């Protein structure tokens, strides 16, 4: 039996140092102007404040995931109308990557709805990674939990980043997911690090968690050693048929607070505006850039939920005087 399909072991969730949690909580509780001032000051110490990276995310294998993540329309446990699709062929992925590059994206991320890939899946994804890498783009993949040796195969194919989000704070995690433990996620991140790959790791806000629990997520991310090179901050996209479809809207200013605190706690990380940013509107996104966001997922689709179209993104950035980062890192 594939060990990734076996019942997940019960384990106590990992916890960030109490001092880190208190630091994150204090940041989120600051007066808004003070928080943004601190975040912008830190941002300018490490980055060009008027530059962002464009990344495009393509779902290379959609639907059919056996996990029960309460936010995800790709779970087989939720009736969301998402149609299962097999792993895409190389030519189709290359066409999408070329289009993304032509639109200004410098990183191309490939996501597959697996609990964890089998070795034969990794071999096929490695072909896709090599093909995209040949275009001169940064490569990223999010495929679920990895077993020993799989990260090395992806690295050898040319993968630069592996995305595996913590999603939320350890103490709230069980409210959202029961089929994978927090430690499972940390174990995959360890395998990614040990293989020499860069880490893309963030979470989702607006799932019913408290501000204190959002601080718990930030503390956990900031306590990773080394800290993630890329930190995607997602706002819940409510999808009919998922358990979180009726969750109340998150105050957009709470999202901005998360971005600002992430920038302060992880000063050298790229803080990426990800799923749900269209709900912020132009003013909300502008505040996120002021708070230290310097990367966006860009294009018409973000896995199976909508993302602002490229022209709208470019128009907003032009109004703000923000330019796209050229080339690859």
Mean pLDDT: 88
How much of the sequence lies in strands comes to 15-25%
Which structural class fits the helix and strand makeup?
alpha/beta
What is the N-to-C succession of helices and strands? HHEHEHEHEHHEEHEHEHEEEHE
Biggest sheet overview: 10 strands, parallel
What global shape is seen? Answer: globular
Name the poorly predicted regions: 1-13, 302-308
**Total of DSSP H or I helical runs spanning 4+ residues:** 11
Amount of helix:
25-40%
Q: Say how many strands there are.
A: 12
Distance between the termini: 40 Å
Radius of gyration: 18 Å
Q: What topology does this entry show?
A:
Layout: H1 18-28, H2 32-46, E1 51-61, H3 90-102, E2 107-112, H4 119-133, E3 138-142, H5 150-157, E4 161-163, H6 170-173, H7 182-194, E5 198-200, E6 203-205, H8 211-223, E7 230-235, H9 252-265, E8 270-273, H10 281-290, E9 295-297, E10 301-302, E11 305-306, H11 310-320, E12 323-324
Parallel strand pairs: 1-2, 1-9, 1-12, 2-3, 3-4, 4-5, 6-7, 7-8, 8-9
Antiparallel strand pairs: 10-11
């Amino acid at each position: 039996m594939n060990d990734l399909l076996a019942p997940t072991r019960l384990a106590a969730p990992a916890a960030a140092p109490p001092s880190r949690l208190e630091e994150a909580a204090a940041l989120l509780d600051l007066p808004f102007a003070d928080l943004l001032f601190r975040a912008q000051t830190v941002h300018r110490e490490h980055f060009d404040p008027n530059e962002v990276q464009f990344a495009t995310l393509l779902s290379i294998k959609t639907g059919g995931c056996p996990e029960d993540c309460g936010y995800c329309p790709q779970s087989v446990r939720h009736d969301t109308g998402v149609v299962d699709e097999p792993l895409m062929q190389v030519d189709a992925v290359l066409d999408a990557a070329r289009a993304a590059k032509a639109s200004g994206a410098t990183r191309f991320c490939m996501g597959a709805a697996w609990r964890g890939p089998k070795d034969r899946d990794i071999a096929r994804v490695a072909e896709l990674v090599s093909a995209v890498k040949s275009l001169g783009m940064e490569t990223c993949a999010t495929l679920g939990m990895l077993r020993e040796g799989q990260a090395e195969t992806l690295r050898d194919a040319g993968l630069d980043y592996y995305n595996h989000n913590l999603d939320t704070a350890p103490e709230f995690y069980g409210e959202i997911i029961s089929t994978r433990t927090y430690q499972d996620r940390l174990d995959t991140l360890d395998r990614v690090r040990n293989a020499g790959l860069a880490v893309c790791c963030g979470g989702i806000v607006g799932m019913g968690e408290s501000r204190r629990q959002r601080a718990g997520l930030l503390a956990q991310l900031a306590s990773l050693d080394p800290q993630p090179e890329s930190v995607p901050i997602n706002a819940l996209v409510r999808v009919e048929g998922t358990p979180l479809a009726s969750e109340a809207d998150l105050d957009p200013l709470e999202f901005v607070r998360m971005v600002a605190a992430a920038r302060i706690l992880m000063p050298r990380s790229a803080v990426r505006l990800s799923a749900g940013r269209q709900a912020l509107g132009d003013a909300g996104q502008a505040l996120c850039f002021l708070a230290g966001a310097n990367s966006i997922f860009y294009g018409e689709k973000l896995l199976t939920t909508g993302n602002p179209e490229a022209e709208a993104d470019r128009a907003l950035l032009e109004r703000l005087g923000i330019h796209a980062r050229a080339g690859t890192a």
